[in-house]
From TrEMBL:
It comes from Paenibacillus riograndensis SBR5. Residues 6-146 form the HTH marR-type domain. The keyword DNA-binding applies. The keyword 4Fe-4S does not apply. InterPro entries: HTH_MarR-typ (IPR000835), MarR/SlyA-like (IPR039422), WH-like_DNA-bd_sf (IPR036388), WH_DNA-bd_sf (IPR036390). Gene3D superfamilies: Winged helix-like DNA-binding domain superfamily/Winged helix DNA-binding domain. One of its GO terms (molecular function) is DNA binding. Keywords: DNA-binding. This is Transcriptional regulator. GO terms for biological process: response to stress.
Amino acid sequence: MDYDKELYLLHLMKQVYSSLISVSNKLQATGDKYSAPLTSRQYMTLLAILHLPEDETTIINIANKLGATKQNIAQLINSLEKKNFISVVSSKKDKRAVNVHVTTLGLETLESCGISVTIDFMADIFKDFKLEELETLSKFLLKLYQFDGSKMDGLEVDVQVPNTFSEEEIRTAIERFSIRRNGKL
């Protein structure tokens, strides 16, 4: 065994872990500014709910979708319910569970802050990344997520958000993204 190499690997892993925690905290704090009146965690929770089949929006399924604990999601759900962004109803499948539904106000709020989050925030935080770098980062994060054998059930497919944007609004948003990302504001 090469002890120097193993020591270096251990040191590097600790640095990567520390950096991931710092980056996560920084992204969350910065994301909060873009997603107002929601926090970035509330925004992601609403998205997770919309990515689940309506009869499977239990706290545990939302937690699994986000890679979070049940307790953490329960706190977020309570906060969102107090703001009338969601409603909580008994599950028809399991009387011990509840299903969470996004209200009309919740959908309107998601839509209103969606451009800021999906266009401005993404353009600002990833402006210095090339396509290949983003693809590599995505692969590495997916690999890291699976360290315990669990698969990432991401938010990239099957969303149940009604598209209320016209083709022109979408084109304008993509142009805004491109201009912002390429630093031509």
